[in-house]
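ok here's Pirin, seq below lol
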Amino acid sequence: MSTTENGPRPQTARVFPPRDVPLGGPRAMTVRRTLPQRERTLIGAWCFIDHYGPDDVATTGGMDVAPHPHIGLQTVSWLFSGEIEHRDSLGVHAFVRPGELNLMTAGRGIAHSETSTAATTVLHGVQLWVALPDEHRHTGRDFHHHVPSPVALDGAEARVFLGTLAGDTSPVPTFTPLLGAELTLDPGATLTLDVDPAFEHGLLVDQGDITFAGTPLHPADLGYLAPGPTTLTLTNPSPTPARLVLLGGTPFDEPIVMWWNFIGRTAEEVVQAREEWQQASTRFGEVHGYPGDRLPAPELPNVALKARGNRL
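and the structure came out like this:
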């Protein structure tokens, strides 16, 4: 951290704007992706942030992601509106609704499907991935569902779905130190949160124009702050409420090879996982109850898959 004559100079956040990406194969829906970026692959072990909606499903068709595989990661589903049906090869059939967490651990291999339900009129939420550290990335399949209680703060409210914040701790286990929470700020509110100085943090803006560590952020922006601060200050200067997703974790120093739905350490490992999915290997298991075919893997790129980490 830089200093001035009066002591440490407060950090300012780096801003990562989103890019539009089609998700889900032939019936693709468009999402706004803010992680990974060219300069930053991870925030803690968080390696993937997709932000979607609010979408009128009568117009867009909603979410319909056929059975597909994962290795080396955990998926985290969090909604602001709508309802998603989850089925996986562990045999789990579950739903996720606003204010609820679905966390699925792929480990060595899992397959799952995700579809918005008939009860959904407006679909709006985030889909997040967590990279598993090398010592745990071949762990067994797992699934957790958790409904965090809202924590009332001065001019704000928090729902902590992973880790600890504002005196509340999620019971859902993680393989590296992590934080995940939804925050809402009243109009004109300023909120200062105590945080772990060993964590780096990312703040995704769902709605509202806010200031994060002195840096303006707008809807769909991701603000990044390096480790060091013991507090984070958020301000909502607008006359309407702001809604945010705060993510954090200790820096993840392992380079990863990330392609399609796979996270490995070498290109050969990812190529092998793709081949096993195409051959319907028992490695990923079967998803029962989805009314359709599973997703085929895309063709591999003509360039070699390379490990990557953070550039800043």
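fwiw The longest helix spans residues 267-278. kinda neat tbh
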